[in-house]
Amino acid sequence: MSVKIQSISLKYLANPNGKAHIDYILKDLNLEIQQGEFTCLLGPSGCGKSSLLGLIAGFVKPTQGTVLVNDKKVTRPDISRTLVFQEYALFPWLNVIENVAFGLRYQFQDSEQRYLTATRYLKMVGLIDHARDTISQLSGGMKQRVALARALAVQPDLLLMDEPFGALDDKNRSDMQKLLINIWLELKPMVIFVTHSIDEALILADRVIVMTKDKQTGVGFIKADIKINSQRPRSLTELGVYRNQVVDVLYGSSINIDNSFDAVI
Amino acid sequence: MLTSLTNRITVAQVTNPENLLKHRYLHRIIFFTLLIAFWQLVTSLGIYPKYLLPGPYDVFETLIWGFSKADYAWVILHSLRRVLMGYVLAVFVGVFAGLAIARYKALDNTLGASLTALQSIPSVAWVPLALLWFGISEAAALFIVVLEAFIPCALGVRTGVLTIPKEIIRAAQCLGSRYIDLYTRVIFPAIIPQLVSSLRLSWAFAWRALIAGELFITGLGIGQTLELGRSLADMSQVLSMILIVAILGFLTDNVFFRAVEKKVNSIWGL
């Protein structure tokens, strides 16, 4: 299992002052991610990290270059790469367990087997008592746990998470981080996790890829690639060295300070 | 003035729902009693001749007579049958037109834009054309009903599909849903709240178009009985039919569709 991003360029239609023009959001970007790694893409908004995730998922077509997952070219979304979104994206017309079982329809003919699999993943996220609840009854944290169970239930090779905990309050956010790490330690899926919170990246990742965008051209690029060698569960106090390193990368030269960076720092 | 307004608001806030419901019925009973009393008063004063403005009791009598001795029940059933036929056809056409318009930008630019124009044409305007094409027949009435009622459905479905959050579609796609399956398992259920509002609107349109169409065709129908009342100068019958149209409209819209809408919105979390 590996993800190879080979000289990817992505253009998009920008419209800053009412005058539409085409800009590069990513240009000639290369990145390789290996089996079993928990990778965080960290950067300010607009640096192209979510676009990069969309490219890996297959929703976004690159202008140039290729994305290879397992040495196969990504051309469209596939059940081997599931996504968790910030806004949950649950199906409100289905109840909790039906949401989790959504993708299982394409893997198991037998409804009993779908039910058992969905139940297993609901237990894993601690929502088995809410299996028959409707989605609108759930809190934000619970919704995100359903979304996580739904994405994991189809046993993807690659779990893609697009600022999944961004809409949650601090308490829920740290609970979800713990839950995610526990599940990851158990199942060891390959995870690519997009965030703009330095602390979140440090708590979760084996590898933090720091992205930022060029002030002049607006093109997003990888500024640093930091390996975190620290036992889990981690606490922020022991991650001070890494944190300084990230802050240094992002703010080291005073010219490059980006005000759009989230206040979580 | 301002204090009385704030008072009203605070009172409404502390009143429990049961009382609010009681108030609603009380308000309605008082309103309709007053309305009927006023109507009776105007007719008793004898300002207008009885054949132009019959009193509430005359209309009540006509309704009793109509249901017991004449064919009012059949008239209503025939109109309902006709409107249901037109409505089902209109919804069918509307849903598929809406899906197609939402799917293909070229259709949206052409057909989608024309629908808005078409919607501004009152149903009566189609009557001459319908009569020429289909003759003085039920088909003419159905044509008008379908033409009127499919538009809100098509426009509603279009808007519904185009406003589905893109994350919902993406989530379904990465979980393996594609093509027809994506429509049946995700797009269609996702637009149901919007669809129910459209169905409600379509029903109102169908009902209006039907009465307009029935004025000009032969055969049993509310519109025909209304028209007959006019030609016989039987204003009591005309008012009876108008009353029936109003009551049926109220029952379907406020009782049936509202209940469905409420239920759907609670499930969809709207």
Architecture overview:
The complex is a heterodimer of chains A (265) and B (270). Chain A has 265 residues and is α/β, with parallel strands linked by helices. Chain A is built from 7 helices and 10 strands. Chain A has helices at residues 49-57, 96-100, 111-124, 140-153, 170-187, 198-204, 240-251, and strands at residues 2-14, 21-34, 38-42, 64-69, 72-73, 81-85, 158-162, 190-195, 207-213, 220-227. In chain A, a hairpin with a 6-residue loop joins strand 9 (207-213) and strand 10 (220-227). Helix content of chain B is 82%, strand content 0%. With 270 residues, chain B is mainly α. Classes of the chains: A alpha/beta (265), B mainly alpha (270). Chain A binds chain B through residues 57-59, 76-79, 81-83, 85, 87, 89-94, 102-103, 105-107, 134-136, 147, 150-151, 154, 160, and chain B through 165, 167-168, 170-177, 185-186, 189-190, 192, 266-269.
Tell me briefly what this model is.
The complex is a heterodimer of chains A (265) and B (270). Chain A is α/β, with parallel strands linked by helices. Chain A contains seven helices and ten strands.
